[in-house]
Amino acid sequence: MPTLPEENPKSTDQRLLWRCDSWREGAVGGSPVPMTREVRMTRLEEAFRTILECVGEDPCRDGLAETPARAAKSILFLTKGYEENVELVVKNARFDEDYNEMVTVKDIEFYSLCEHHLIPFYGKIHIGYIPTGKVLGLSKLA
To answer: How far, in Å, CA of 27 to CA of 33, rounded?
Structure first.
């Protein structure tokens, strides 16, 4: 997790502080501030409207009028993992346990986005680990 510059308060939500300034609202000439969901939605809608125009479509026609908003919501869903903080997700789900057999969870559905092509993909994954004194609640793995 990237750390904040010293001048930023420690209470700032670090989930969306990213290595790239384009993720930050007001990053030029001041302390970077994580973008709000509303700012990201607006910028993504504008970007999708531009994409539609660049491929020769009219983003205002009936069939496409709401497409920029739908596409923006979709990409935020597909990239929602960037907003999650593993410490907040796991919270109180770690338990002391004298157990040394493999723990497995199978057929966990996942949805993601190829970072090179921005094409969605999905599938099922399986997780297995051998605990060393602590186990994690299975719902936190899925």
So the answer is: 7
pTM: 0.62
Residue 49 clears pLDDT 50, i.e. is over it: yes
| Residue 11, C-beta contacts closer than 8 angstroms, at least 6 positions apart | none
Q: Which residue has the tokens 């990213």?
A: 18
At residue 105, what is the residue type? V
Identify the residue with better confidence: 88 or 101.
101
Helix axes 37-54, 67-78, angle to 10 degrees: 120
Q: Please report the pLDDT score of residue 86 as a whole number.
A: 79
Residues 82 and 74: their CA atoms lie apart, in Å, by 14
pLDDT of 31 over the 60 cut: no
